[in-house]
């Protein structure tokens, strides 16, 4: 599965980057491709490319604040959680993302 | 650019015996003051507590990351404390805290992009279980620095 996402916390100094690291590690461990953009005090880093977004099956938004350029994900399957969910239980979050992905595929096939 | 540059041996304290969050924060803020990262302890602490009030800074795995932006910060930096006993703290996993990483960041970061970048790379390391495990076992400041060097 290809995952893209954004991490952004209130102060933009710590949780943003911890969430990024945890999500990337959890997704890779489960065998997925992942790219997480961070929007913090320093600004946007690891900015997602249009191609990465187009190829993504799922978008994870681990955010506590309003993010910029959210419209890039229009029409995508988006899972939004506070950063602390990504920090606390990244593996569970990835499992949940996998389930949502499978379910929506089944629904699509059922039609 | 090396993360090493953000980890200052002078602002690391191991074998700490803080009994409370307030003790730990004061002890670490004192280090920041002595090494000229901040200009005033009380002012800085007020800003840190403002962030504490917004939500848990205990990220689980016995680690807390108190932080906030403060006008009393002269230079971006971190103070790191490794406490012998668990300190009661609001945490995501309900456990106490043994490793406290106090971030000092100013409100005006014009010209500090390099330091902010380093700080973000440093914060990222705290999301890595191996780094955290090594950090908590540190017996001296050099061990702490080595933990982040991984």
UniProtKB/TrEMBL annotation, chain A:
Task: Name the SUPFAM superfamilies on file.
Answer: PTS system IIB component-like
Q: Name one GO molecular function term.
A: protein-phosphocysteine-sugar phosphotransferase activity
Keywords of the record, alphabetical order, are: Kinase, Phosphoprotein, Phosphotransferase system, Sugar transport, Transferase, Transport
Q: Which InterPro entries match?
A: Bacterial_PTS_Sugar_Transport, PTS_EIIB-like_sf, PTS_EIIB_2, PTS_EIIB_2/3, PTS_IIB_fruc
Gene Ontology CC: one annotated term: plasma membrane
Q: Which GO terms describe its biological process?
A: phosphoenolpyruvate-dependent sugar phosphotransferase system
Residue ranges annotated for the PTS EIIB type-2 domain, each copy included:
1-99
Under the heading PANTHER family, the entry gives: FRUCTOSE-LIKE PERMEASE, FRUCTOSE-LIKE PTS SYSTEM EIIBC COMPONENT-RELATED
Name of the molecule in the record = PTS system, fructose-specific IIB component
From TrEMBL, chain B:
PROSITE patterns in the record? PTS_EIIA_TYPE_2, PTS_EIIA_TYPE_2_HIS
Per its UniProt record, what Pfam families does this chain match?
Answer: PTS_EIIA_2
Q: Name one GO biological process term.
A: phosphoenolpyruvate-dependent sugar phosphotransferase system
Domain of life of the organism encoding this protein: Bacteria
Q: Name one GO molecular function term.
A: protein-N(PI)-phosphohistidine-sugar phosphotransferase activity
Q: Which residues form the PTS EIIA type-2 domain?
A: 5-150
Record protein name field: PTS system, fructose-specific IIA component
One Gene Ontology term, aspect cellular component: membrane
Q: Which UniProt keywords apply?
A: Phosphoprotein, Phosphotransferase system, Sugar transport, Transferase, Transport
Q: Which CDD domains match?
A: PTS_IIA_fru
Species of the source:
Gracilibacillus orientalis
């Amino acid at each position: 599965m290809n995952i893209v996402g954004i991490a952004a916390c209130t102060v933009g100094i710590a949780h943003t980057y911890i969430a990024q690291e945890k999500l990337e590690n959890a997704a890779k461990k489960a065998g997925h491709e992942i790219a997480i953009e961070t929007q913090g005090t320093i600004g946007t880093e690891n900015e997602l490319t249009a191609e990465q977004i187009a190829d993504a099956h799922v978008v994870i938004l681990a955010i506590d604040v309003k993010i910029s350029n959210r419209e890039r994900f229009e029409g995508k399957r988006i899972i939004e959680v506070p950063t602390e969910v990504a920090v606390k239980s990244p593996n569970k979050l990835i499992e949940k993302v996998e389930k949502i992905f499978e379910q929506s595929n089944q629904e699509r096939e059922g039609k | 650019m090396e993360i090493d540059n953000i980890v200052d041996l002078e602002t690391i304290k191991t074998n700490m015996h803080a009994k409370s969050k307030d003790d730990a924060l004061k002890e670490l803020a004192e280090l920041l003051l002595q090494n000229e990262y901040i200009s005033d302890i009380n002012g800085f602490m007020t800003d840190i507590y403002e962030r504490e009030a917004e939500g848990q800074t205990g990220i689980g795995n016995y680690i807390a990351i108190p932080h906030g932006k403060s006008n009393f910060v002269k230079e971006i930096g971190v103070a790191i404390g490794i406490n012998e006993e668990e300190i009661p703290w609001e945490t995501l996993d309900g456990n106490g805290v043994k490793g406290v990483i106090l971030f000092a960041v100013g409100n005006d970061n014009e010209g500090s992009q390099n330091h902010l970048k380093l700080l973000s790379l440093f914060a990222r390391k705290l999301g890595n279980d191996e780094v955290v495990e090594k950090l908590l076992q540190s017996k001296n400041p050099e061990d702490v620095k080595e933990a982040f060097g991984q």
